[in-house]
Amino acid sequence: MKNKTLSIATLLLTGALLFAGCGQTGNTTGNTPSTTAGQETATTEQTDSTAQTASDSTASTNDIFTNMDTTDIDGNKMDSSIFAKNKVTLVNVWNVGCTPCVNEIPDLDKINSEYKDKGAAVYGLYGDLGMGISDDEMAQIKDIMSNANASYTQLRMDGTLATNESLLNIMAYPTTYVVGSDGTILDTIEGSKDYEGWKALIDSYLAE
């Protein structure tokens, strides 16, 4: 009976995280901010230990893509060399259970197509919470991409990405990383944007 209760609690927690991660409509033009579980965390007294944890977390975030070794959803090998092709790359972490994630896919695909020869690109990264992609989820991913007529590459959390704590602990979908040509993260954006919002962001980086 105890194990059954724990299993139900685990399922409810997972569902709550996915619901919380999806963005809620805000007042900022072109941007839909997301709600994170961190907003509900009580403030605790800081210690040297927590400071070290924060430092480790920052390091974990910074090296997500510098030595990336993973695959796309079709099983093709992908590594950090994909970033060298462009000045700036968006890596959009999403989940099929997040409506704002799904709604922005057509705009992200449009951005990827229009900036293909202008120094920018877009990659999706499916957020599976470290549990792997089920057959049902894979079917949903492909249906969503097909219905949106989207063709930009979708990465999996395999290889180095499967063990990166920052990725495994993401609690807000969508989360988009702005990545430089050397794989370093230039910015992290929680929440979705429309076409004009993404266009303005990329143009600002290309102008630098």
From TrEMBL:
Q: Where is this region: Disordered?
A: 29-62
Q: Which CDD domains match?
A: TlpA_like_family
Where does it localize? Cell envelope
Kindly indicate where the leader peptide sits in this chain: 1-20
Output the InterPro entries linked to this UniProt entry: Redoxin, Thioredoxin-like_sf, Thioredoxin_CS, Thioredoxin_domain, Thioredoxin_ResA/DsbE_sf
Annotated Gene Ontology cellular component terms: cell envelope
Identify one Pfam family in the record. Redoxin
Against Gene3D superfamilies, the record matches this protein to: Glutaredoxin
PROSITE patterns, sorted: PROKAR_LIPOPROTEIN (PS51257), THIOREDOXIN_1 (PS00194), THIOREDOXIN_2 (PS51352)
Give all residue intervals belonging to the Thioredoxin domain.
59-207
Any Gene Ontology biological process: cytochrome complex assembly
Q: Keywords in UniProt for this one?
A: Cytochrome c-type biogenesis, Disulfide bond, Redox-active center, Signal, Signal-anchor, Transmembrane
Which terms in the Gene Ontology molecular function aspect does this entry carry?
oxidoreductase activity
Say if the entry is tagged with keyword Amino-acid biosynthesis.
no
Supply the name of the protein: TlpA family protein disulfide reductase
Which organism does this sequence originate in? Roseburia inulinivorans
